[in-house]
Amino acid sequence: MPIEISRIEQLAPDQASLAAAAKLKKPGLWPLLAGDDSGLIWGECQGSGSSPYRVMCSETDLGYKCTCPSRKFPCKHTLALMWIRADGRFPFKTESPPAWVDDWLARRRMGGPAAKKAASDGQPKAVAAQASAASAVAEPPAEDPKAAARAAAARERNKAEREALILGGLDELDTWIADALQGGLASFMPSVSERCRKIVQRLVDAKAPGLASLVERLPAETLSLPEAMRTDALIEHLAMLHLIARAYRQQERLPNAMKADIRQVVGWPVTREALLADSQALRVRDRWMVVATVAEVQADKLRRLETWLSRLGNGEAPPFAVLIDFVPISLGKTTNAYRIGDVLAAELAYFHSTVPLRAIIAEQTGATQAGGRWPRPADDVPGAIARVNELRALRPWSGETPLAASGARIVTSNGSLWLTDAARTVSLPIRGDEDDIALPLAGLADIDMFGRWDGRFLALDLCETSLGRWTAS
Known about the structure:
Structural class: alpha+beta
Distance between the termini: 35 Å
Number of helices: 15
Largest sheet: 6 strands, antiparallel
Number of strands: 16
Radius of gyration: 26 Å
Strand order of the largest sheet: 13-12-11-14-15-16
Oligomer: single chain
Shape: globular
Number of domains: 4
């Protein structure tokens, strides 16, 4: 089982080592990345010398070894290997361990060099490696049925306690919303930051971190809008929070996909391991093109990295996916591992949702490559807007919804940029912070575009034009 990123942070000797490891998460620096079925991974990382450093790790017990001369343990190469594995973005070959990994395993195990002898006696290398791996980690004790039953009961008790805490937090959220409405939004707006801060802390205490995050973003998202739009935006935010609370209380009456969706929104986690082990999770194997990358710093001191993918094949599967990673801001500026236009062949596993969008890479086949022109979307601008409205009706609490359209135009009106079609029958306002960089698109016809619609403004990410490709980043 891959090591959790939080565990890697705990293993790191200092923040400088983590920052150095982050810089090594590039496939070009690793001519070899491999592993086997017993929880062993290894790789070769190109350093400053002519020969790459050899790095190996046991995911079972967190043992590791690197041939670099660093006096820090684990070194940056070891942390990078673990991190790359945890991210799941770059493929690891599945093969038998090479001799240098076998030697390390033989030295680690207890009871003498039996693994080496097995290999020298002519046994197949896979057999010797299996023996080494088995002896490298002590055999776990047999599970005590009574202890397992007590552990299961404790998990159920903890789950029930958390459910009760969340329901209590939702009651306080309802009271907070009612107080805001009864007191009048005109008096609420000047103190919106302080009022939100108090209920955020209560929701955190109630074990509803997802809901707390939605409230925490409310002041910034509202106050960043033009003044004429703020009251309507605040009403929509409060209505959305009320809708989530009502849906959570009625979750047993909801379809399974919506129930899973609402629990994730409130803050129940779904780990990578649980999603990969879920036989009911939607999986889609195809070729994907990166059409947007987003990096933003959150209030919890994590940097949120989003990679938006467009499926290049045909069929009924979801046309888009978003990969979301979180990196501590203490590591310094961390850029996305992908660039717009990159193409990868991969199987994605989607989180359960009424509108499947967030996913993880379950398996990537081959290296990421630079792609050609992004395929022309099937919808024109009116069709794309209609499709987005349908999706947002199915998932009202959506933050951003992907929008792809062909035959679009960018026009200026009253000093702002708008996306429209050739006949100008419908239009969407483009985010104000993109006006300058998107201005060269104004006047061009027949644009194929991808963007993210948040209900008020369009973030324009990629445009294929007669003059070539335009990207926002």
